[in-house]
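Recall that a protein's primary structure is simply its ordered list of amino acids. Everything else, from secondary elements to tertiary packing, is in principle encoded there. The following example makes that idea concrete.
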Amino acid sequence: MADLVVVGFEKPDTADQVLQKLVSLKQEYLIDLEDAVVVVRDENGKVNLKQSINLKAMGASSGLASGSLFGTLVGLLFLNPLAGFAIGGAVGAGAGALSGALADYGINDDFIKSLGETLPANSSALFVLVRKVQPEKVLAEFTDLQGKVLKTSLSPDQEKRLQQALSDSIKPAE
């Protein structure tokens, strides 16, 4: 089961930077992300979502492959496999892109938008759905990060430790 973690940041570009770092940590097998979304609320109060998974592109590419194969097979029946390949690929890509646009994978978009509306202007938030994580090793990579936990599905103790790590990450100069 995956855990949802939403962390808010004071600057609009911080959530993007954190997501890039999490993606690099994913390549080191320290975290397994199911879904991630960056929400930026600009100075005018407009909420912008940046999905980490482009469902339209995924649907179009899988539709292109399956449509091309099916079109070639149908084209063989009518002795014109090249036309079947082209027509089947075009129809498959269009259908795949449409189904990708209509699908909602991972974190619910309505939930993201409603929580994004509560962010202060000129700030950002990172929504992550985490399957597995090595918390100590991941948090050690963010020693200079300041953020506020906005919402989680973690246990109260885990949530408290996460907020503590985000609050204590910048130590006062001695």
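The helical segments are 14-27, 55-77, 81-102, 109-116, 135-140, 156-167. The first strand starts at residue 3 and ends at 9.
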